[in-house]
Amino acid sequence: MDLLLAPPTAAGPVRLGSPYGKAVAAVRPWGKPRVVGPTSRRARRLMGDFDGVGYTVFFDAVDRVTAVELWRPGEGRQCTTRVLLDGHDVFTTPADTVLAELRERGWTVDDEDPGNVFVPGVSLGFTRQTSQEVPRDGQGLPVSFTSVLVAGKGYYDFRCGQ
Q: What is the percent of the chain where pLDDT is above 70?
């Protein structure tokens, strides 16, 4: 299966801004999600995994999807699902290649913290943090991204001082 990332509108079948019921229906083919919250400090979330790819769907206070985060399969887990951004599997393509492609599109990439990279405006975020045994670059970071987050416009404004 291929999960297509379409920032800032969707991650796979989950569309940003969708109400809770539609989000649950979108992830239902992946199995029954675990529902977390809401709590006094946090809105509701859906969590689960399919074919080894972990996911969290985040909601706002009125139960609309604000972001979707996907994680690479755990160490030693086999996976046939690809998480694609512009044809690149973000969990197997070297992070530097993915970032170069984003810059070629004319997008600004904030990689001041190379372990937590984001694309403001498009609201796309990546991490390269894990305790798993994975190939690493000269800085000790995983060669490929370990998670990707797709959110609505403005999601990373707070990191840009806006």
A: 94
